[in-house]
Amino acid sequence: MPDSPEQIVRVVGERLAQPRLGKDALVKLLKQAEGALSEFSQSLSLQDALHSLSKSLVETNLLNHRDKDVKLLVAVCFIEVMRVLAPDPPFSNEILKEIFRLFISIFADLAETSSPYISRRMKILENVAALRCSMLMLNIGCEDLILDMVKVFFSSVRQGLQPSVCQAMLSIVVQILNEKVTRPLVDVILRNLVKDDKGPSHKLAVDIIEKCARILEPIICSFLSSCILNKDLPVNDLKKLHHKVIVEIFQCAPKILFAVIPNLTHELLSDQVDIRLEAVHLIGRLLALSNLHFGRENKSVFREFLRRFSDKSAEVRIAAIDAAKACYMDKSSGDEARNILTSLQGRFLDFEEKVRMRAVNTVCDLAKSNPSSFPHGVVLLAAERLRDKKASVRKNVMHKLLELYRDYCEKCSKGTATVNTHYEQIPAKLIVLCFDNNIESFRPQSMELIFAEELFPSSLSPKERATHWIQFFSYFKPEHIKALKVIFSQKRRLQSEMQAYLSLRAKKEEPSDEIQKKICTSFRKMATSFPDASKAEVCFQNLHQMKDNNIFKDLGELISDTTTFATGRLTRDSFLKRIGHKHPMHSFFKILSVKCMYSIFNWEMICAIFETLLSSGNELTNYVESACYLLLVVAMVFPSLFRGSEEYLLKLFSEESVLINEKTLQMLAQLAKSTHHLSINLRNAVYPLLEQKCVEGTRAESKYAIAAITSLRPLDDQKFVKLCKKVVTGLNDKRNVPTVLQSLGSILEQSPSVYELYGKQIINSIQDILLSTEFISTSGQSSLDDNSTCCFSCKLKVYCLKALVKGFLPRITSHARINNMLEKLLDYEKGLFPDIALCENDSPHLQLAAAKSVLQLATRWDSQISPQLFRNTILMARDPSYIVRKSFICKLYGLLKKRAIPMRYACAFALTSTDCFGDVRAESASYLSEVLKEQRRVFLQQIKTSKDSVVDSPAYAVVFLIHTLAHGEELPSNYYEDETSFPEFCSPLYVMLRELVEIDSFNGTEHGPAASSVSVLSGIFRAIQKAEDPSDSEITQKLHILAKIGLLIVKELDKNCNMSSPRHILLPSSYYKLSGSEIKADEGCQENFISDKLVKRILKAHEPCKRQENVKCSVVSERVSNEPVPERENASDCCNGKGNKRSASGKALPKKKDQNTNNSLGKENVSSCGSAGTKLSSPGSLGLAKEADSRECVSLLDKQNHPMSRCSTGETRASKADHNLCRQTVDISNFHLRECSFKKDCGKVSSESQKNSAFLPGSSIVCSELEDVGDCDDNFVKLPLSNNKRAGLKKKGKRALELVNSQNSSDVTGADTIDNVRCTRARKARV
């Protein structure tokens, strides 16, 4: 074999020319040629040496050989020849095309990285790149081959290829693009750019664009612009992906898109939803990729993008929200981020529920991803959607907030987050869902599970749970605490019933019918703790049938108050394992186990809270106050959890502690009620401190200190004697007088024997205060309500009155003493204060205090309260002062709610039906409805037990309402013609009857006629028609008129009413007496005619009316107070114009007209009906003193300085001239009444005071159900003529009788006028 490469090449070239060479021979020769050619360097002088080889490679058809090995070696030889003879290869254009086609086929195998021939293929590729063969291909017109080659590059590039291979491919493509850019070639590059698989082919496309950005910019911009602007052009697969192209190019060569980006506004403004949707997705990606720099650089596009948050399409708005989430997660600072967040907040109020949900979800996810930097106030705005009108939105928001709060607690536990005041408000937002009883997921039965299982991570320790409880409890308002108490009480009720059931089951004797009945009762009570009570009761029955006693042992362990969280979880798991996961009622038993165990609060958390308090360093911060209040709330429901906490309590109530405040004292009083929970040592240790608080603390503190002393030492009167001595000494020394008076009243209430020892001394000291007009300054006394116009001296007089009244509450008080006190209170209510020195504005405060004192005494001494005192007390609901009326009805509602006073006092709520302020009317109506419904419930229970009495019917309150109205203002002489005053006069009666009839119709007649208020009312009205007033014969006529009108009103309200009545209707003898004869009763009212049109006019006056312009207001509307709403400092008259003061008998006394009042109304040009816009306020939200008992003293204007027109039965009506002051009416029919509910467990037995009314056998009025209804029919009711009168008419003839009858049946007004007595405050009848 020759040695020189030239000779080798020649010899190989000659042998290759021989025909019919086999594969092996070809391979051998080609390898020899490869080796020789590799030794040549580039030189045109070798052209002769390579001629034979070149000729043989071309002419022997080796270019089209089918064997892959031969083809690869031939390609190697060709590329080597081209390398050596570059730049002028010895081949024609056609041969070159075939050679390049061969090369491309070789490049397709580059993907076989494990092939032994990979090095030869790489060599060919690298030489093609180095020799710039692509230029040669372009010169000879091989554009199609170039396109194929580029496609092969993208398809063959793989992971694992050497970088030199990828670099060679990149170099070749760049060479081509630098020489010539074609659309098909760009399309190939872009298709690989937008591949979902971000592999080597994508990387190659990115590298190509980065290298050739300037060259590719025109054609890419043209393509993208046509995609954006020319939507009507034919669509191909690449055009559909133009947004993806923009995103990819934006990441690698954003300058290419400089001319394209502004065109995106065209898509954002497109009429087609799908185009806007894709545009929003695109811009969201661009914003996120650029960390919002895109928005800063393209402001017009960014502004239009922000407008898509309010797009008319919900899908587009949702897309904008999703884009905002991606953007904000990448960058949360800068103007662009704030603008995006602002737009996102706007979607909280979107009209599409799915958009609102997506907005809330986005905010919660953003807050969870970065709790430290995310604006926390936005989270609270999102939480407001818990009040969304859609239940699905509320549920979604609840779960997202729970997820966020759990994540926050977990980060706090790990130390990656600190306590955040905004996040700690989330539980307060969640718990108000308890009031949404229409949705099963929000009822207290379900919310208990949420607070037990979903609020905190399961891994959170009791100490950490207690810390968070204290934090978020500080944001609880009264409504939140009320909801929490409902949840706690419900849980406690189930635990108690479960304990009772387990005790019954544990009895070894055979189960009797009585035991089985008790078990069923327990099941029924426990079932109320579940959303579906009937289904739960069945599950309890199935539980009772189970034979495994270990199941019931586990239940007993769960309800034990000594069980820890960890033990409770283990016991619960054991219980559920015994039940079995495949049990059909497994989910019920899972919920039952949560409800049985102390999963919300347990004794470990109580100890943790005590430790927090004791480690606070005696600093009374908000956190400490929240902890004290939380302990109080828990102690009210779960006092057993405090068992064993005596050491903490001793430290808490140590002498140097500043934590002894109203809440901790109230907590101690609550715990002291359950004597087995506290040891004797604690009682002895804290008693001196309690005594100190009785003298040196605040009024509220002294109140609870006395309560604690009473509970800790219930039988030790000597302690009260010693304490009373200290208190009386402090009273004589004028030290902390308000607190001393509070303590004194509580002591007198708890220990009546003290009065026998110190009564005279107490009376003398109190008289000194009542007769004093000086301001009594006391050292160390905290200031009272600075906003109140009531002076300190007046406050002390009120406190004195309260202390005296409490001394009369014990039942051993003599009747002489109580009667003397009641007489004084009557004088005070009349405004007569012979034994009290009055300051300028004392009178209204003392009158209010006297009325409240009467209510308090009625809890024990209602039988001693005279009719006159009763009337004057409930007429306080028509006092000229707004604050007096408001405070009185709230106090009254509280007592009626507890069933502490008789039902008859509810008449006061009906008297406010003509009140000037809408919130007073609305709240009174709500209170009246509540107490009537509760009284009906009690009445029905008595019917079931056969202990019913008509006196206990809610309808019986009408007896006292008619009495009060009859003794009130004078009945108009022409009442049957009066279109305004008389309907107003009857308004309280109508309101009361309407509520009673509606309650009847709502509850049906399943309890029979005995339970029907309508039948009771008919009997009451007929009994009153046969009765007289015992004190004033002139009142009798009014009684009969009101009774007949009431009877007709009932018939109008209930068309299907049954007028049969109970057999016996007893009227109280102190309010009514039996008429001497029927003739006498008829003679008293024979000149009055009551037509059906008169009654219909009364009903018409109270119908709801729409808002109208220029409608004349009625007299009721005109009685509008100039007194400001409660937030203002002073309260003025209830009515403008002339006003009257009540006399002792309830009649009106004339008063001078206050010109200033009327002028001020005229100057302000404000309709007197403007009070309809007053915001409803809660019963306890009057602007009064902060201390518990100082709310008796309210801000009032002196009646003498500011004449008032009383909104009561004793007032005179406004003059005709004053009517011009009230012309515009305001519709307040949309007012929402306060929702108040009775506690189901309170007052199971009626107060004894409800049974103290005197019914004397000889004077009680009895009406038989067999008696004729009399003159009642569907057309009219008239008072019967006397026999003498009718006889006289008969003598005159038939014509005279017909004339009388025609006058009776005609409309006395002569025209069908429209009465608008209630147009400004009309409300639809509640169903």
From TrEMBL:
Alphabetical UniProt keywords: Cell cycle, Cell division, DNA damage, DNA repair, Mitosis, Nucleus
Alphabetical list of PANTHER family matching this protein: ANDROGEN INDUCED INHIBITOR OF PROLIFERATION AS3 / PDS5-RELATED (PTHR12663), SISTER CHROMATID COHESION PROTEIN PDS5 HOMOLOG B (PTHR12663:SF50)
UniProt organism field: Digitaria exilis
One CC-aspect GO term: chromatin
Keyword Nucleus: yes
Compositionally biased intervals (Polar residues): 1156-1180
Protein name per UniProt: Sister chromatid cohesion protein PDS5 homolog A
Source taxonomy: Eukaryota, Viridiplantae, Streptophyta, Embryophyta, Tracheophyta
Signal sequence annotation: none
Pfam family, one: PDS5
BP GO annotations: cell division; DNA repair; homologous recombination; mitotic sister chromatid cohesion
Stretches for region Disordered: 1116-1183
Subcellular location, record wording: Nucleus
